[in-house]
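Action item from last week, closing it out:
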Amino acid sequence: MISRDEALILLDKYIANENMKRHCLASEAVMRTLAGKLGADADEWGLAGLLHDIDVEITKGDPLTHGPYARNLLEGMLTTEALDAIVMHNEQATGLERTLLFQHALAAGETITGLIMATALVYPDKKLASVKTKSITKRMKEKAFAASVKRENILECEKIGLSLTDFAELALGAMQKISADLGL
């Protein structure tokens, strides 16, 4: 398995968009925290969060190639389980349903970052420190708010044993710890 430093070099090589890099960093933070909560390998889960969208600019987010292309880029650098979770975070590419804890965690974890970032951006100070868990769960119900965020993916938190409220609190806390890196 590659180191975090090597993963960051890869991220810089394949991702130019700064917002996408921030999304990847946020996903890493959430996945590391989830791993700690669920007794999984924080390095393995963190790298999956960090690199899950490594191919998004190459594939232009094409739902049929985004994920499988990442597997080809990362083969031999991550565990098979991490590669599977990365491919399965975009279930459209495989036509398969997510079945494993790691797969559900990555799908839910990377998706909630978008909802949390969007919530922070409607606050006057645009800071994660101002966001409350209740605001996230309230925004979750507003389908027009951050409309591209797949709520059904976030709700997969229940498949890893966390309520939406507990999951939102965990994800927010993880992101708040790296708020300077996220510019929020």
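Closing note: The domain at 4-182 is CATH 1.10.3210 (Hypothetical protein af1432).
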